[in-house]
């Protein structure tokens, strides 16, 4: 069905040669982690299915999960997921400002995909943040001009009175875009009614006027029991409740905040699979863990249990241990030593347990990590785990590329997929030098180079997204099963691309069926005449 058939008003008043202004919708929340990102992705897919050219936008994002675009720019994973839901190539303008925490009070600031340095929260939330507004404004209007619909996401809560003066992501964006706002509350965590009423009470009158609908997200139970509360909200606020979205965990949409890892651990334990039924993959839960979506493909495998562990006692007897990426490699390396995890990992390696390092985790497997310029922290040098024969030193320039190449290694499981094409992306400031043959031959931005190293049962790589490559992941899991003395059925192999598309479509159906879409289209100016 074409968009003209779906929405007759879209071109009703068009003038030949005159470009029509994009429709827009903004998703704001009563707090963080209410589901804004996933709902924004759902709306991107819903309107994409209806034939619209849709783009996501979030002015400022704070996350350790990031992605590298085809042009080498760095942006938040949430907007990448939303772009994929909209059938678009990710563009840094969709997330013009990204903050990556490097400590309790500071973050690396990334503007239009490029790192600008590390600032304290106090320094950022002032003159610097005000200077980013023209950049945000320009990116927003360019997307509005280039697309038919823009789905805008806010951050945290719009009612944080201590941050509103320099706001560049919530109501200031809504006013600039003249965007109707849906206010989302997480009813699963309790206090949803109070959070909605309280948020609206703290908004300025002109801001409150932009809120055109209320959404209750993550609802469990009988909607009939909730109806009196919904009636109260509408009567108290004068704003319609346009959706009650049931709690969903039937399909996997990549998450952005590491808070979800606790829920994932519980859900895996609830499955109650025995060791005979599933591989046990343990990921170290580093304090500054980044890009944990690298391991989402394991979540989709029926014969794998993925666990995140913080201390040695939690490790148990895993089939493999993964040290993930980090936004503060030296601090996280010190955490490994201080917690006793470092010694435990070395012990496992000596017992021939597979140990994997991705990006920062790869660096930690080496002999030493140095940061003479203080690019990530005040720590200048930390002794590595000494498993891989290499040394890493941080430099001022950040290496950010989308990578494509092939498997050239011959040991461990690599012989099964040698010559296979792989894709991924790199985000690191460290440069590693070591002995031994590369595992992968990579081509990025016109340069060909080697990546990865192994020693015994341990190997590492700078490539994020390495396990998204179906043949490599399959070879790896088959190898782990054979180490157990078992075999893995061929029908276990799953396509990550197909899983993602199915999840987007299921999410769109889930949200569409939970929303008053005619009301939302009316709010956006897309209703039928």
Automatic annotation (TrEMBL):
Organism: Desulfitobacterium dehalogenans (strain ATCC 51507 / DSM 9161 / JW/IU-DC1)
PANTHER family the record matches: COBYRIC ACID SYNTHASE (PTHR21343:SF1), DETHIOBIOTIN SYNTHETASE (PTHR21343)
Pathway terms, separated by semicolons: Cofactor biosynthesis; adenosylcobalamin biosynthesis
Annotated ranges, domain CobQ/CobB/MinD/ParA nucleotide binding: 25-256
GO BP terms in the entry: cobalamin biosynthetic process
NCBIfam families membership: cobQ, PRK00784.1
Function summary: Catalyzes amidations at positions B, D, E, and G on adenosylcobyrinic A,C-diamide. NH(2) groups are provided by glutamine, and one molecule of ATP is hydrogenolyzed for each amidation.
GO terms of molecular function: ABC-type vitamin B12 transporter activity; ligase activity
Active site, per annotation: 359 (nucleophile), 464
Pfam families named in the record: CbiA (PF01656), GATase_3 (PF07685)
Record family assignment: Belongs to the CobB/CobQ family. CobQ subfamily.
InterPro entries from the UniProt entry: Class_I_gatase-like (IPR029062), CobQ/CobB/MinD/ParA_Nub-bd_dom (IPR002586), CobQ_GATase1 (IPR033949), CobQ_N (IPR047045), CobQ_synth (IPR004459), GATase_3 (IPR011698), P-loop_NTPase (IPR027417)
Gene of this entry: cobQ
Protein name, as recorded: Cobyric acid synthase
Domain CobB/CobQ-like glutamine amidotransferase: start-end pairs: 280-470
Assigned keywords, A-Z: Cobalamin biosynthesis, Glutamine amidotransferase, Ligase
Top-level taxonomic group: Bacteria
Entry-linked SUPFAM superfamilies: Class I glutamine amidotransferase-like, P-loop containing nucleoside triphosphate hydrolases
């Amino acid at each position: 069905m074409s968009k003209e058939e779906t929405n007759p008003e879209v071109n009703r008043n068009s003038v030949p040669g005159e470009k029509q202004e994009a429709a827009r919708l903004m998703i704001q929340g009563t707090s963080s982690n209410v589901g804004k990102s996933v709902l924004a992705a759902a709306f991107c897919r819903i309107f994409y299915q209806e034939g619209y050219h849709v783009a996501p936008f979030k002015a400022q994002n704070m996350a350790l999960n990031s992605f590298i675009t085809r042009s080498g720019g760095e942006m938040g994973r949430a907007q990448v997921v939303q772009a994929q839901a909209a059938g678009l190539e990710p563009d840094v303008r969709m997330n013009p400002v990204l903050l990556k925490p490097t400590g309790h009070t500071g973050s690396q600031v990334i503007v239009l995909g490029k790192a600008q340095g590390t600032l304290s929260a106090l320094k950022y939330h002032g003159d610097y943040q005000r200077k980013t507004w023209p950049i945000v404004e320009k990116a927003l209007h360019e997307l509005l001009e280039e697309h038919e619909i823009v789905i805008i996401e806010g951050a945290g809560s719009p009612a944080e009175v201590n941050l509103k003066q320099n706001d560049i992501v919530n109501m200031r964006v809504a006013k600039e875009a003249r965007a109707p706002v849906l206010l989302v509350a997480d009813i699963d965590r309790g206090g949803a009614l109070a959070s909605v009423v309280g948020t609206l009470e703290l908004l300025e009158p002109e801001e409150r006027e932009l809120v055109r609908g209320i959404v209750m997200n993550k609802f469990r139970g009988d909607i009939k029991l909730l109806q009196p509360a919904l009636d109260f909200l509408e009567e108290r606020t004068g704003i319609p409740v346009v959706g009650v979205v049931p709690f969903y965990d039937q399909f996997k949409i990549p998450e952005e905040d590491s808070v979800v890892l606790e829920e994932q651990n519980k859900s895996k334990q609830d499955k109650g699979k025995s060791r005979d039924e599933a591989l046990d993959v343990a990921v170290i839960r580093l304090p500054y863990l980044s890009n944990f979506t690298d391991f989402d493909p394991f979540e989709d495998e029926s014969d794998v249990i993925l666990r995140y562990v913080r201390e040695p006692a939690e490790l148990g007897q895993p089939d493999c241990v993964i040290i993930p990426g980090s936004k503060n490699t030296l601090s996280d390396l010190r955490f490994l030593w201080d917690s006793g995890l470092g010694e435990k990992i070395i012990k496992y390696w000596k017992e021939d347990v597979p140990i994997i390092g991705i990006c920062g985790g790869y660096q930690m497997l080496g002999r030493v990590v140095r940061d003479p310029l203080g690019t990530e922290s005040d720590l200048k040098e930390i002794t590595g785990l000494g498993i891989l024969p290499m040394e890493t030193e941080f430099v001022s320039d950040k290496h950010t590329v989308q990578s494509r190449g092939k498997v050239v290694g011959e040991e461990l499981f690599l012989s099964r997929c040698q010559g296979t094409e792989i894709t991924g992306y790199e985000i690191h400031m460290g440069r590693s030098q070591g002995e031994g043959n590369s595992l992968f031959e990579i081509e990025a931005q016109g340069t060909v180079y080697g990546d990865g190293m192994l020693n015994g049962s341990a190997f590492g790589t700078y490539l994020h997204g390495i396990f998204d490559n179906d043949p490599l992941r399959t070879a790896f899991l088959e190898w782990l099963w054979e180490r157990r003395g078992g075999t893995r059925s061929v029908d276990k192999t799953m396509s990550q691309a197909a899983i993602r598309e199915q999840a987007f479509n299921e999410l769109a159906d889930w949200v569409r069926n939970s929303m008053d879409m005619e009301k939302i289209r009316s709010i956006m100016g897309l209703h039928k005449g």
